[in-house]
Amino acid sequence: MSENNFNLPKHIAFIMDGNRRWAKAKGLQSFSGHFEGAKTLERFIDNTGKLQDIPYITFWGGSVNNLTVRPKLEIKALFDVYEEWFTKLLKRKELIEEDIRVRIIGNWTGLAPASLQKVFTELSNKTKDHKRRNLTFLIAYSGKEEIVEAIKKISNLKSSSSEINEVLIEKSLWTGDLPPVDLVIRTGIDKNDAPHWSSGFMMWLCANSQFYFTKTLWPDFSEKELEKALGIYTSSQRRFGK
Q: Domain spans of the chain?
């Protein structure tokens, strides 16, 4: 990271909301928005200069509800988007050249088609020892479920002398080897609704995060608006609950 970027967040997380509304506004079927959102994601990973200086980037790809209660045609389209996009990612030489680690975190093993599970597993195994940059994708994810599973893991520890503290809890999380999230960007805030959270998104790691909420739908989210979010972050004083 260059000296000019020392104030950039170490870990930034994106809640990519608004794909379906983007499609509806254009008179398209909802799943078209997910394919367009995937193009935006690829553009950011490819071309956004300052993201290259941020070692940890997390993208929320969908909750358990997104992949279970929505119409079957849309759920199939989501899985198709995942398989197409992550298959392309698996083949990219940059994963090796830029020492990028890819994680796919969530309860996807019980929901995703076998072919997609294979891609996820190959990506994780291929990049597990990479350290310079980290891309994390939360798919079939629930922050509440993550906390519940951490508690179960701690309760099953053989050593009764283990002290339950913040360090142990954090290590027991699905996301336990990630640093705290410095900045969360949530797109697609409805003009008729207040800014809100979803599915307990990384609630432990976001305890002291700064937030940037925008009405811009994810397919329309631009590098210019990312610059704005980062500018607000770098010019703000972190309070850490004080």
A: 10-158+181-233
Two structure tokens written together for 238 = 């972190």
Residues 6+ apart with CB under 8 A from 25: 217
Please confirm, yes or no, whether 177 is among the known catalytic residues: no
Using an 8 Å Cβ cutoff, are 146 and 175 in contact?
Answer: yes
User: What predicted TM-score, i.e. pTM, was given to this entire model?
Assistant: 0.90
The mean pLDDT of 5-34, rounded to a whole number, is 90
Closest CA to 135 of 173, 94, 168: 94
Residue 160, sorted as left (phi over 0), alpha (psi -120 to 50) or beta, turns out to be alpha
Catalytic residue of the set 17, 19, 134, 182: 17
Backbone phi, psi, residue 73, to 5°: -65, -40
Please, which residues bridge with residue 210 across strands?
A: 183
Active site residue 80: no
Distances from the Cα of 189 to the Cα of 38, 214, 224, angstroms: 19, 6, 18
pLDDT tens digits along 42-69: 988 876 556 788 999 999 999 998 899 9
Run of H or E residues at 57: strand 56-63
Dig out the tokens for 200 from the structure: 């307990």
| pLDDT above 60: residue 155 | yes
Choose among 3, 6, 14, 33: nearest CA to 135.
14
Q: Which of 66, 107, 134, 182 is catalytic?
A: 66
Which two tokens mark 221?
């989210």
CATH class of 10-158+181-233: alpha beta
Instruction: Please report, as a single letter, which amino acid is at residue 72.
Output: K
3-state SS assignment for residue 15? strand
